[in-house]
Amino acid sequence: MTAYTPPSPGSKIIIVGGGCFGLSTAHALSLKKKYDIWVFDRLPIPATDAASTDINKIVRMDYADDTLYLQLMLEGMPIWRQWNKERAAEGLGPVYNETGVLFFGSNGKFSDYEKKSIKSITEAGYGHVIEHLPTPKSITDKYPQFKEAVENGYDIAYLNKDGGWCNSAEAVKHIYNKCIKNGVQFVLGPDKGTFEKFQEKPGSSGVKEVVGIVTKDKKVHYADRVIMATGSWTPGLVDISTQCIATGQVVAQFQPPQSLITSLKNQPVWCTDVSRTGYYGFPVNEGGRMKVARHATGYIAPRLQDNVSVPRTQVTHSGDTIPVGALKHMRTFLNGFLPQTSSLDVVYSRICWYSDSIDGGFVISPHPEYKNLIVASGDSGHAMK
Ligand SMILES: Cc1cc2nc3c(=O)[nH]c(=O)nc-3n(C[C@H](O)[C@H](O)[C@H](O)COP(=O)(O)OP(=O)(O)OC[C@H]3O[C@@H](n4cnc5c(N)ncnc54)[C@H](O)[C@@H]3O)c2cc1C
C-alpha cells in the first residue's frame, strides 16, 4: 500500500471518463485553480451509453442507516438548486425537479430500508421533510392515480419532500460547460479520447508507477496523477480485484396517451417497496415520456479472455434493447401498481450499467498497487447526486 499525498501545485492530472464521477472531480479540482486538468472520454460528452446520460435519475436522501450518503445529499441539494438558478439565468429549463420522492411499503408495513431511512433523516434534523401517509385513504386522497396500487397492497407510504429527479444528461452538460469555463481540457473520441493502457515508469519494481496513459491512437499522455472514473467500464480497464462488477440494469420509457399525461405528470418519483421489488419510476417528463427502471442484481456480460463483466451497450450493439423476460416482469409489476400503464408501448429501452461494489458504497481510493493512480468508481447505481 502506498501512502497518499495530494498532488503538488502545477501537477498535471488526467481523468479518464467524463460521466458524473469524472466531471465532478474535474470541476472540484478546477476550483482549486492550481492544477492542469485533462479529461479523456471515448465519446463526446454526454456519452450516449454512460450511466450518467439519461432523461432522469432519482435525487434522494433516503439511504436506510447509511448516513454518509444522506450527508452527501444534504450537501448536494443546495447545489442542485443553485444549478437551476444558473440555468434559468441562461434561459434554460431546470436540471433538478423537486417533486419529492414517494416511498411505498406493502401490506401495512415498511421494510427496514424505509424504516431506517425515516429514522436517519429524522435524527439528522430533517424530520419535517417527511410526510407520513400511513393509511390507504391518506395515499389516495393525495395521489388518486395510485388507487389500484393501494388496493393491491402498496398501502403505506411516506413522501420525502426534499428530493425528486434530475435530468441527468442535462446535468452532465451543465457541469461539462462549467469545467470548460474553468480551463479543464478535454480529449474526446473513439481514438484520441479512449484509454487503452497505463504508461508506466520503466523498471519500477514492486509498486508500479503510473506516469500517464496511452490512448487508442497510440499516443502517450504524461501526467502526475491519473484518475480512472470510467464507471462500469473500470473493472475491464484496471485490476480492481473483485471490488466492483459491471451489472446491467433494465430501463424502459413509455409514452402514455394524452388522457393519462396529467395524472402521471403531477406526481413525485415513486419507489415501490424498493428493497423487495426493485422498481421505481418517474413522472412523465416534458417530452411526454415516463421512465420505469428496476434496481436489481442485474445482468453480467463476461468477456472471453478473463470473465470480467464489461458493459455491452447500444454503441457497439445498436439493436440491443432489454431481455423480453425483463419486460414481461416489468409489465406484471406495473399491472399491480399502475395498471393504466402496464400495456403501453415501449418507446425506448436499454440496459444501463452500474459499477456495483460489494457493499453498495462508492470505491474511491488510490490504487494500492500503482503509484499515482486513483480509482473513482463503484457507483452502485446511486451516484447522480
Ligand atoms: C438504470 C440505471 C438507473 C440509475 N438510476 C439512478 C438514480 O435514479 N439515481 C442515482 O443517483 N443514480 C442512478 N444511477 C446511477 C448513476 O447513473 C451512476 O451512479 C453514475 O452515472 C455513475 O457515473 P460514472 O461517472 O461513474 O459512470 P458513467 O456515467 O458510466 O461514466 C463513465 C464514462 O467513462 C467513459 N469511458 C469508459 N471507458 C473509457 C475508456 N476506455 N476511455 C475513455 N473513457 C472511457 C464512458 O464513455 C463514460 O462517459 C442509475 C444507473 C443506472 C444504470
UniProtKB/TrEMBL annotation:
Q: Which residues form the signal peptide?
A: none
| Origin superkingdom | Eukaryota
Write out the entry's keywords from A to Z. FAD, Flavoprotein, Oxidoreductase
Does the UniProt entry include the keyword Cell membrane?
A: no
Keyword Oxidoreductase found? yes
The entry sums up its family as follows: Belongs to the MSOX/MTOX family.
What is one Pfam family matched by this protein?
DAO
Which protein are we looking at?
FAD dependent oxidoreductase domain-containing protein
> Which residue intervals define the domain FAD dependent oxidoreductase in the entry?
12-384
Its cofactor is: FAD
